[in-house]
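In keeping with the milestone schedule agreed at the kick-off meeting, the structural modelling team has produced records for the first pair of proteins. Each record is given below as a sequence line and a structure-token line. The laboratory manager (R.T.) confirmed that both were archived under the project's standard naming scheme.
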Amino acid sequence: MAGSQHTQTHPKFIWRFLALNRHDKKAKPRRLSVEAATERDARRILAPHFILSLAARLPVVEVSHA
């Protein structure tokens, strides 16, 4: 009997943050979203440019047009 195979090794999520620009102290907070497997990966993408506060983790839903 064949075992189930996963098409992804890590499920992906949409990570949403409230972000402040590190280089523009007068900028207003803004909402940013990024797709990544972990919060750490998401922060690695955005942290060099923004100070982040986690707002949400949403599953990525793949659309099937069968």
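The second protein of the pair:
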Amino acid sequence: MSTISTRKKILVVPLDWGLGHATRDIPLIHEILNAGCEVVIAAEGKHAALLQQEFPQITILPLPGYRIQYAQKGWFFGIKIIQQIPKIVKSIKYEQKWLQGVVKEHHIDAVISDNRFGLYHSQIPTVFISHQLLIKTPFGGIIEKCLQQLNYKYIRRYSACWIPDYAGSNNLSGILAHPKVLPPNTTYLGCLSRFVNRTGVQKQYDLLVLISGPEPQRSNLEKMVLEQVKSLPISALIVSGKPGTPEKQQITPHIQQINHLNANELNEAMLASGMVLSRSGYTTLMDLVKLNKKAILIPTPGQSEQEYLGKFLMEKGYFYNIPQDKFNLSDALLAAASFPFKSFEHEEDMEQYKPIVQNFVKSL
């Protein structure tokens, strides 16, 4: 049995890009704790609030995120991100310096960085998690090649790279996590979801709407859904993706809106829903696959990764995808009702990540 003096201490740090990186780290944190280690988390804002709610016993250190600002118009999204590259580089340098002090002060034995580039260390094992080895942009071609080279430059500074997907052609991320050349010490984790699937759950909602992602597009989608759902003869639960503010309201007798649900509550809501409407953020996609749910995807406008994933997974038959500028809720529900949904065929491997985490802990 582990004691305080012998327990290894692992620092887990999610990227502050939407809530997906924080939520997909939840099963990893559980597995690290189950392996007898102590976990320290570094985050700020809504990411810290979400993880503190899930793990009230864990210390959360304040660490500024990259704090990316997003464009109001989708077509300007890529340009807006590129303009902020100097700010991102500055943040990477800051977190590298920050890590050196934290490792000494808190006696950190290993680091798991979910897509934050500056958390490598020369004296302890460090893991970089990403499903985007190829970073999609609206510009394609040489821009994507340059970004991939920069991406690999940072990844190679880590001891290992973990990819939350499956190797081979039967996968969820397509070219994003399956480029011709992989970084060294790469391991595919399989599907990484905090949720638990089970049968026999009684249906409560015709539609579960998951509003998520960066502002202002999060609010844009929320406004569209609220305007359109009121006139439809369906039961619906709308989750607005605002952790730390648990307010809820009854929109109509059959439609409820709530700002946030914890993991267990959201798990139950998804199981009790006939259809899910959400962004095509990668963590959400893994959750949907884990629970074998039918879904309508609306990629964040201008976010090339989500637009690629929506089209890629619709072509495979896993989800129905529609751009936000063509979105009409009534039409989307009709189209989804006749869409020939397929189940993802990796149900037996939904816990592939567990032995990988256990072996990592044993190696410390």
